[in-house]
Amino acid sequence: MIKIENLTKKIDNKIIFDNLNLDIPSKKITFIIGKSGIGKTTLINLIAGFTKKDSGKITFFDENGSEIKKPLVDVVFQDFNLITNISSENNILIANNVINRLLDPKELEQQAKYVSIETRQLKQNVNNLSGGEKQRIAILRSLSRDSDFILLDEPTGNLDFENGISVFENLKNIAKNKTVLVVSHNLEFAKKYADKIIRIEKGKISEENIDKTEENLANNNEKNSQLVSFKSSSYSKIAKIKQELKTGLLLTLADYKSKWVSTILFVILFLTSIFGALLFAVLNLNISASNSLKINEYQLDSVLVSKKSERNLTTFTDNEINNLREKNKTIKKITPFFTLPLLSFEYNDKRRLGAPIDYIDESKFFKNRFNFDQRNLIGRNIENIDEVIISKELATQFDIKEPKEQEIAVLTGPKDKKTLKVVGINNLVNAKKLNLTFLHHKFGENIELQKSKNRELENSQSSQSKKIEPIILRLYFENNNLENNIDNFIENNKEYGIDSSLKGITKLTYDLQNFINLIVGAILIVFIAVLLIQTIFYTKNLTDSKIKLIGILKALRAKTWQIFLYHWLNIIIISFLILVINLSVSLPLIPKIYIWILGEDAIYPSISQIVILIFIIWIAMFFIISFIYLLISWFNYKKPVTKLLKFDHF
C-alpha cells in the first residue's frame, strides 16, 4: 500500500498538488485518470522519488501493514527506457545486478512466458523489438527485481489496441502480489481492468472503487492466475564482482558500438600521445643500457691513459700500474702500449706507413671479447707474439682476401723489420672511425727493447739494458654502469691525460638530443593539446549520449559508485588496451628509434627504463583523462532522473 498525506508540489510557480491525500491499495490495480498536463506523471515522479516534494508525506506499507523504510519502487515508463544496443535479457539481468540480485537466465525464460515474452524475444536486441514487446520487457524487468510497487506511466500510449489489451491482461496477473499504479488517460482500459480509479481534474480528486470479487474468483481457476515469481540466487563476493564486471562490459561495448568512430579517433590520439611522451622522455634519459657487442666494437669500455708532460713521453712504472688497478676496482684489464699507436707495414713490395694499431694478447679476456663471426672479424684471435690481426684497409691494400698465415713485415726502425703471421682480418671501425690492426702488446715491448739495444750499441754503452716501460695504458672497465665507472676514474685521476671514446660519443649524443628534444617536444605539446581537446569532446559526446543510460540506472536504484564505474569503464578498458599496445610496440621499437635518431647504436635506453617510463606516462595521462571524463560525467549525474529521461512534463 502507498499512503500519500498532504502532498504539495509546485513547478514554475504553478501549483500541481495542494495537500493531496491518497491511498493506493496493495494487490490491486489502481488507475489515475486525467488529461495531459494535469499532474499524473508528476505524481509518479514524486512516488518514485525522482522529484522532490515541497511538503507532505509518502509512506509505503507491506501486506501486513508494516511500514517499509526503503521500498523498491519500479517505474515502467511510457517510452520504456530500455538500454539500447544490448539484448532484452541483458536489460533485465543488469537491472537486477545493480540491486545485488542474481537471476538464473533459464528461470527468466520460464517466467517470461507469463507476460507473453518468448525466449527468442529475450535474446533479441531491444532495438529490433516492437513497441508492445518493449513494453512487456519493461514490465518483466520490474517483476524480475521483486519490487512490491510498480508504477506504469501511460503503458499503452505507444501501443495499438491489441497490444494494449495484452499488456493489461498481464497486469491483472501481476497485481495479485504487487501494488500496481497505472497513470493513463484511457478510461476504457481503466473501467475494464482497474480495481480503483482516481480521477484528477483541475486540482480536484475523486476516487471510485470497483468490485471485482466474482471476476477474481473465476480467474483464480484459470491458467493465467499463476503468479510471476523470481528467485534470487545467493550472492558470493566473487559472483558479485563477476556480475559487476559483466554489467560494466555490456554497457561499455554498447557505448563503443554507438560511438565507434570517435572511440577509434580517441584511441589513436591517446596512443600517439603516450608514444610521443615516451620518446621525449627517453631522449632525456641518462642512458643505462648498452649493446655489449657494439661497446666492444667501438672500444667504448676503455680509455687511453698517458702522463701529462711537456717534455718527452713519460712512462708508467709497475707500481703506478698496480696502484691504478688497486684504486679502481671496476678496471677489468690493463693493456700496455710500448709504442705510439701507429706502425708501418710491408707486404709483397707494398708499404703502408702510419697505420693505426691496438695492442691485445692471447688471454681469455680478448678471446671472449672478439666475436669471429667471419663477417666483421674473419679468422681467429692471436695465440702468440708472432701473430697479427690486420685491418681491412691493410688487407685491401696488400690484396689479402683471407687470413692464411701470410707473413707480413712490421717496420720497426730505419733498417729493421719483424715478420708476423696474419691470422685474422678486422672489418670493424671503432668510435674514432679507425679500422685497427691488432698486435700482441709484448711485440711492442720487443720493438722498444730492440731500439734500446741499438741505441746502446751506437753509443758504445754497456750491453746492460734497462727495463722497458709503457708510455700509454689502455684500461678496460666493467660494462655495468659503464659511464659512471669511466666518469669516476676521470674525476679521481686528473693528473693523467685520459682519452675516452665513450665521453666523446655521449657528448655528441646529448648535443643532438637537445636539438631533437626541441622538435619532439613541440610536436608532443601539439599532440597532448589535441588529445585533451579530443578527450573533452569525446567525453562530452559520450556522456551526452549516455544521459539516458545514467537516468535509467538511477531510476533502477543503481548506486552512485556503480553508475560511475560503468561509466568510467570506457576509459579504463581503452587505457589498458593502450598500455598493452604501448608495451608490445615500444619495447622493441624505442631502442631502434633512439639509435636511428641519434645515429648511435652502442648506447640506448634499457628495457627497465622504457617500462618504468611507459607506466609513469600512462598513469599520468590515465588520471588526467579520467579526471576530465568523470568531472564532465558528474555534471550529468547531478541532474534529476526526470531531466535525464526527459519526462519532466506534468
* First-residue to last-residue Cα separation: 24 Å
Shape: rod-shaped
Strand content bin = 15-25%
Instruction: Tell me how many strands there are.
Output: 22
What's the arrangement of strands in the largest beta sheet? Answer: 5-6-7-3-8-9
The biggest beta sheet is recorded as: 6 strands, mixed
CATH class of the largest domain: Alpha Beta
Backbone structural class: alpha/beta
Instruction: Give the fraction of residues assigned to helices.
Output: 40-55%
Mean pLDDT: 84
The CATH homologous superfamily of the largest domain corresponds to P-loop containing nucleotide triphosphate hydrolases
The count of helical stretches stands at: 21
CATH architectural grouping of the largest domain: 3-Layer(aba) Sandwich
Spatial extent as radius of gyration: 44 Å
Low-pLDDT runs of 5+ residues are 221-225
SSE order and pairing:
Elements: E1 2-11, E2 14-24, E3 29-33, H1 40-48, E4 55-60, E5 73-76, H2 88-97, H3 105-112, H4 119-123, H5 131-144, E6 149-153, H6 161-174, E7 179-184, H7 187-193, E8 196-201, E9 204-209, H8 213-220, H9 237-258, H10 260-283, E10 289-290, H11 292-298, E11 302-307, H12 318-327, E12 331-337, E13 342-347, E14 350-360, H13 364-369, E15 377-379, E16 387-391, H14 392-397, E17 407-411, E18 417-426, E19 437-440, H15 441-458, E20 472-477, H16 482-492, E21 496-500, H17 501-545, H18 547-555, H19 560-598, E22 603-604, H20 607-637, H21 641-644
Parallel strand pairs: 3-7, 3-8, 5-6, 6-7, 14-19, 16-18
Antiparallel strand pairs: 1-2, 1-4, 8-9, 10-22, 11-20, 11-21, 12-20, 13-14, 13-17, 15-18, 16-19, 17-18
Helix pairs in contact: 2-5, 2-9, 5-6, 9-19, 10-17, 10-19, 10-20, 17-20, 19-20
